[in-house]
Amino acid sequence: MSIDRAVFYEVLGGEDAVATMSDEAKADALEHYMIESLNEPTFLGSPGYMEEQAAFLQSSAPVTRRGTGAVFGDGRREPPVLAPMPERPTLVDFFLLRTTLPTVRHLLQSATAALTSGASEEQILACLLHDLGQSLMKVDHGWWGAQLVEPYVSEKVSWAIRYHQALRFFPDESVGYSYPELYIKIFGRDYVPETYIREAHESARNHPWYMEARMVTVHDLYAFDPDAQVSLDPFVDIIGRNFRQPKEGLGFDGSPVAHMWRSLVFPDHRL
Known about the structure:
This protein has 14 helices and no strands.
């Protein structure tokens, strides 16, 4: 999809505001811009949105802290009203009831691309789950997402999700992954990722599972087609074979990350 650089900069508060952002924050903002554009392709360029965004940037009391996950609201509008979850929620329930529609579309496009390419079920599942952490937290969503699913998937799947975030910034021509032209347009040719991102890339590049994370990036960045026809149906059996659904329900099984799933089940709890 095409990106209007002027509109993107205006969404972020202008070039001066963008200049103060970290490189990783710029990358997350770009991905958020693209995902939102899936839902309403003309919305981000509308005058009403710009006025609303400007008011938000000037406000000292946003609805939520910027950087928190999509299910908690984006700071521009009141958080969305959410349907109640089943007593023993499954992963599919979280896809249907706690993940924004644009994100679901993106994840399904990514997983569909992996499925079509003949990828392993672990790689397909990693593509299906790689941005799920954004429901909780936009910042370092790869790490959040990996931790969220770690008790329920193979170590290889969680590893791929964790490192896909860093690998986005580094080309690998052996699999046809070039440095994204969109990043050049937005960040400039002299852009250098933050130190911890570079260190994560180096660590992943020398790991036996490097290609597991790399293939997530191959099927990730360009999976933003608002007209693509996708369905969760082809992945239900893959989830069943590769995701260890707790009988108590996600959030109620006493795992080290149960509280993270409960935060999504009950995002309106005050304490």
